[in-house]
Amino acid sequence: MRDIGRALGWDRSIQPRDTLRLRLLYNPQPARKDLGNAQAFQRCDEFGPRVDAAEALRRSVYLPGTLPLAFDFGGARYSPGTTPEVFFDFRYAASTRAVQPVDSGSADRWQSARRVNLQRALRWGPGQPKDPTGVGIAYPDYGGPLIAIERAVEPDILETYMIANSVSLVVLPERTPLDATGLSVSRDIDAYSWQFSAQLFGRTSLNLVRPDASGPKTVELTINGHVWLFLVERYSGQGKFPSERFTIGGVSRTQLLAEPYAPKRSAVNVVDINAQQAAADQLTDTGFTLAWDFAHQYPTDWTIPAGAFSYQEQTAMQVIARLAEAIGAVVKPARDSDALSVIPRYRAAPWAWATAVMERIIPAQIVGEWGSEWSPQPAWNSCYVSGTTHGVAVDVRRAGTAGDEPAPDVYDELITGTDAARARGIAELAKGGNQEIVTLHLPLFPEATAPGLIEPAMLCEVRDIDGTWRGLCLATEIGAEGVGAARVTQTVRLERHH
Predict the structure, then answer these.
(1) What architecture is domain 257-344?
(2) Model pTM?
(3) Inter-residue contact 330 to 343 (CB < 8 Å)
(4) Which of 144, 214, 313, 452 has a 20 to 30 A CA-CA distance from 281?
(5) Is there a contact between 223 and 478 (Cβ–Cβ < 8 Å)?
(6) Residue 114 — very low, low, confident or very high, per pLDDT cuts 50/70/90?
(7) Domain coordinates in residue numbering, the chain
């Protein structure tokens, strides 16, 4: 280490000139005031005897009485003499006592609430959805019918529509095909069965459908996937050498509940019964089923008191149709099964069609022909509906109107409930107003293609060239010309309100 001996020498030759030493105090402690002012807290007399202030005052204050030593000052202030031998001091100063708690021995007791009436449980039935479109929820605990109203499917708008029509007519149960042409199927909104007619070539086909000892024959008609079952109940023939042609006619199977097949009966209800029950009783041991779905299709159900429902010499279908007519409803027959349903003629009043759920959409692009007929009616806004021997009397008035244009009064012995009277009144008011009957000719699309088959009582939206309007289907007729791949047309009559 070369420079280890080389070091700078420091000394204390330089001294500070100022000899004053300063000391700074930071954060001095503030003076504490009011140290002697403190609140004195004392305990209360928790365990001492209770003191009655009123009783203590009574014992301390002198009250004149009948004792030998009694004073009566005559209402004047007492003033003792200058040198009395005895004087009295009436001043009273209550002694200071400690505060005593009140109700110190009482305490609130908390515990769980008692559960009573555990054996009494409410029986909940299936819910009734109010959404007319249905939500697709299955109710596993309800076995009744649910006829959900499905919204109309938007049809495809094409420049050209090509439909490979398929028409077949077979005899059941062997399913023997028939050589037929000129087929026609129709139904009106007030009819409880479909009507059918066809032309057969030759006696061979006629012999297959002739009625025999077992009754009328049943045929199955399929047009573009839509199936009907008909009873052949009449036929006629015409021939000119060397050819001959036969015409047959039939009805759907719901005709078995009417003349001439169903027996006539007479009855009167001896107990209270619902309208739905009364209609279902007519189908006992017939093999037919009834759908009265007031949750979706909205035909109201009401109670008929004992003795109010009677009929004489009527078939089962006549009785059911009478019950439906009482509330402005109609009977809708099934096309290919032994079933029928009761539905309102007007599922929604015409003034509410703008917000109602439509079941079919008919664009102008698929309409081949059309026609219209103006059919105005008075603009009724009220209707008096009443029972006769039983029931209620209700003045049904359209909301928002004065009710100054009454429709003809309605009297029906089955109007035994307010809901029934209201439904009948709405049906009567819906028939009024400016309206026209529009006839549209369009193809019968296959079942999976919109708009498909348009049945009576369906609400339809027509997208016309000059605007969109809505109407009620009153009748449907389907015609098929030719054999096999025939030309098929569908003709519908719609009630349009203006």
Answers:
(1) 3-Layer(bab) Sandwich (3.55)
(2) 0.69
(3) yes
(4) 214
(5) yes
(6) confident
(7) 257-344, 377-433
